[in-house]
Each structure stands twice: as structure tokens, then as C-alpha cells.
């Protein structure tokens, strides 16, 4: 198997090729948070490309086999992590559950969907990490339910310092297949952006909540 850096570079190329990640330094997006951003990530698009989703599924599975060989349950975070988590669980032959963004308002009012018991240890699958707050809310829900969370794996990570601090405070290990630094460098190499754009992209990540193009 290729080393982690080779894997990350290949996944960066895939995400750019299929427009799962779009870079627009001079025509920024507006996130739900209100932040202006030169990058937009939609990893749901991966599901439409069998070869790419297989590559990602297999690489996440390899991380789990290497780092968490005793984990016996996979959990996806709604909504982006559900399909990818289910694919990983299928690859490993493990049971799957998922964590809702909020508890259902009817029926059994579940926050966690699927069968599990409190003797199980779980790896959490997320499509991307920005601040990490929604990911860690899911981690907390699993812990409250009595599960042992081994760690969280995402496809992409924006590398925000805030996320590093949040995961550290929660004492939750995180791993990502690809991150922002590798992504923008590959984007330059593959000519998705120009050198002058790279400086804008680096500047944005220093203080994304205050950035303006």
C-alpha cells in the first residue's frame, strides 16, 4: 500500500476531478455559518463514482485495521458520513449504526439508529471536519450511550486550529485521508488554481471567520 502522503495526494486529485471540492478564490462561497470561503466541499459526490468511492472505502478500512483492530462497530455521522460509514462497515464485515444531528421528534425519539450494545467499541466515520463541533457532538452521543469511541476518521479536514483544539479537549483521536494543505498544493500542481490564488487560499485558513475576498 502507498504511504499516507501518497494516498492523500491521490484523494486530493480525485476530489478536484469530480468537483467534490471546488476552489473559487475570487468568487467565494457563503457557508451556512455565514463565513465567506474560497472552497466548497461536497463529499456526497464521491458516491456517484464507483472507482473513487471504492478507493476511499478501502483506505479508511485499512486505517481501521491498522489503528483500531479491536473495534467491532462502525458509526456514521448524519448526513454526510452515513453512506461512507456503511460502505466501510461492509468492507470490514462489521455492524453499522448512525448518529442523527438531533433526536427524532416522534416514535422512539432515537438519536442513534441501529442495533448496538454498551460492550462495543466504535470507529466514527465523517465526510469532513471543519470546526469539529458536529462530529464531536456525535462522538459524545455515542459515549453517553455507553459505547467506547476508538477514534474518528474523515475523508477531508480543513486543518482549522479550532478543530485540533476541540478534538484535543474531547480526548478523541482523529485521522483524515486528505487535508487542506495537501489539497491546495495538488490544486496548484494540477492547474486548478494559479500561484497567486494559493496565497489567498492560505490566508483564508488563518482566520476563516474574518476573511473577505
Structure description:
With 213 residues, this protein is α/β, with parallel strands linked by helices. The chain has a single domain (4-206), classed as Rossmann fold, CATH 3.40.50.2020. Helices cover 41% and strands 22% of the residues. The protein has helices at residues 4-17, 50-67, 80-92, 133-144, 161-169, 180-189, 195-206; strands spanning 21-23, 29-30, 36-37, 39-41, 73-77, 96-99, 112-113, 121-129, 148-157, 174-179. The chain has a six-stranded mixed sheet, with helices on both faces. The chain has a two-stranded antiparallel sheet with strand order 1-4. Strands 2-3 form a two-stranded antiparallel ribbon. A hairpin with a 5-residue loop joins strand 2 and strand 3. Helix 1 packs across helix 6 (180-189), helix 2 (50-67) packs across helix 3 and helix 6 (180-189) packs antiparallel against helix 7. The protein is globular, with a radius of gyration of 17 Å. The relative contact order is 0.16. The model has no long low-confidence stretch (mean pLDDT 93).
Topology:
Blueprint: H1 4-17, E1 21-23, E2 29-30, E3 36-37, E4 39-41, H2 50-67, E5 73-77, H3 80-92, E6 96-99, E7 112-113, E8 121-129, H4 133-144, E9 148-157, H5 161-169, E10 174-179, H6 180-189, H7 195-206
Parallel strand pairs: 5-6, 5-8, 8-9, 9-10
Antiparallel strand pairs: 1-4, 2-3, 6-7
- List SSEs in N-to-C order: HEEEEHEHEEEHEHEHH
Indicate the proportion of strand residues.
15-25%
Provide the number of structural domains. 1
| Termini Cα gap | 40 Å
Largest sheet: 6 strands, mixed
If you average the pLDDT, what whole number results? 93
The radius of gyration over CA amounts to 17 Å
What gross morphology would you assign?
A: globular
Q: Spans of 5+ residues with little confidence (pLDDT < 50)?
A: none
Amino acid at each position: 500500500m502507498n504511504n499516507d502522503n501518497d494516498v492523500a495526494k491521490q484523494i486530493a486529485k480525485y476530489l478536484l476531478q469530480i468537483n467534490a471540492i471546488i476552489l473559487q478564490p475570487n468568487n467565494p462561497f457563503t457557508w451556512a455559518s455565514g463565513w465567506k470561503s474560497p472552497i466548497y466541499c461536497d463529499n456526497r459526490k464521491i458516491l456517484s463514482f464507483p472507482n473513487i468511492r471504492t478507493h476511499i472505502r478501502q483506505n479508511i478500512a485499512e486505517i481501521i485495521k491498522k489503528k483500531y483492530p479491536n473495534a467491532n462497530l462502525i458509526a456514521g455521522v448524519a448526513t454526510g458520513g452515513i453512506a461512507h460509514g456503511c460502505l466501510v462497515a461492509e468492507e470490514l464485515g462489521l455492524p453499522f449504526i448512525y448518529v442523527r444531528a438531533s433526536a427524532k421528534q416522534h416514535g422512539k425519539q432515537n438519536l442513534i439508529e441501529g442495533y448496538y450494545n454498551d460492550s462495543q467499541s466504535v470507529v466514527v466515520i465523517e465526510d469532513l471536519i471543519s470546526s469539529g463541533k458536529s462530529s464531536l457532538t456525535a462522538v459524545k452521543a455515542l459515549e453517553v450511550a455507553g459505547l467506547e469511541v476508538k477514534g474518528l476518521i474523515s475523508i477531508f479536514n480543513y486543518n482549522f486550529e479550532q478543530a485540533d483544539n476541540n478534538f484535543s479537549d474531547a480526548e478523541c483521536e482523529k485521522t483524515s485521508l486528505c487535508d487542506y494543505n495537501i489539497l491546495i498544493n495538488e490544486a496548484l500542481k494540477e492547474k486548478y488554481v494559479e500561484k497567486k490564488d494559493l496565497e489567498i487560499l492560505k490566508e483564508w485558513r488563518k482566520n476563516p471567520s474574518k476573511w473577505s475576498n
